[in-house]
Amino acid sequence: MKTKSNNITDADAAGASRTAREAWRLLGIMAEFVEGTERLSGIRPAVSMFGSARITSEHAYFKQAEEIARLLSDAGFSVISGGGPGVMEAASKGAYFGKSASVGLNMLLPKEQVNNPYQDISLSFRHFFARKVMFVKYAVAYVVLPGGFGTLDELMEALTLIQTRKTRRIPLILVHSPYWEGLLAWFRERLVHEGMIAPEDLDLLQVIDEPAQVVDAIFKHYERRGFEPLPAEHELQLNL
User: Fold this and answer.
1) Tell me: the pLDDT tens digits for 79-123?
2) pLDDT per residue as tens digits for the range 154-194
3) Position 154 in a domain
4) Cβ atoms 86, 63 nearer than 8 A
5) Which pTM does this prediction carry?
6) Is residue 198 situated within a structural domain?
């Protein structure tokens, strides 16, 4: 009669260890979503701001971001940034010294990310995708200043979600037109021309250089409907 061995091989033990680590990782991801939802549920309306982590406080982009954030904060918007240096710090600083909350969604990275001190609400994330959900879930608008891959990633994520109707349409505002004109020309000359996107998809983006006009554009978008998600939009956000 054939008997089964009870011996556990090194490969079996290694597999069990990987499974356990994956289970703990999933619990960690869930914890990030739960904490984010609990701590950010009261910050509406909020605007998410993005831009380079690599500029100094003397840079023109820093000063522009700080002014926009201060105007948004004084107008009643919480300002959500990535919580780090550069444009993120400028956004946090402007909001911190304004009337509304400065929110930092800090990312644990091996370099670059050092949490700035201008945060009324500070959260830390290990997982980019959990952090991305928080940026879009609570934002009534995105304000995007010049930046690198991370900034472009957040912009394209928002464009994709809105284009595919996985989230509600919000203003996507690009600041400092000379920085964006090459990218927008490529969108028109390649993506639209070759049928990769529809011409009207470009209407999802606005380019505005004056800080006060950024605030005005957000109010104009919502003047006939208010900032709270409509019932159908709320359902979309639940399924992000």
Assistant:
1) 999 999 999 999 999 999 999 999 999 988 666 557 899 999 999
2) 999 999 999 999 999 999 999 999 999 999 999 999 999 99
3) yes
4) no
5) 0.87
6) yes
The pair of three-digit structure tokens given for residue 32, joined into one six-digit string: 């990030």
Joined tokens for residue 163: 């284009």
- Written as one string, the DSSP assignment of 76-131 is T-EEEE-SSSTHHHHHHHHHHTSSS-EEEEEE--SSS----S--SEEEEES-HHHH
Whole-angstrom Cα distance, residue 184 to residue 228?
A: 30
CATH number at residue 105: 3.40.50.450
Total structural domains in the chain? 1
Range of the domain at 95: 44-238
Residue 158 lies in a domain: yes
Q: What are phi and psi of 49, to 5 degrees?
A: -120, 140
CB-count burial class (<10 Å; 0-12, 13-18, 19+) for 102: buried
In a domain, residue 33? The reply is no
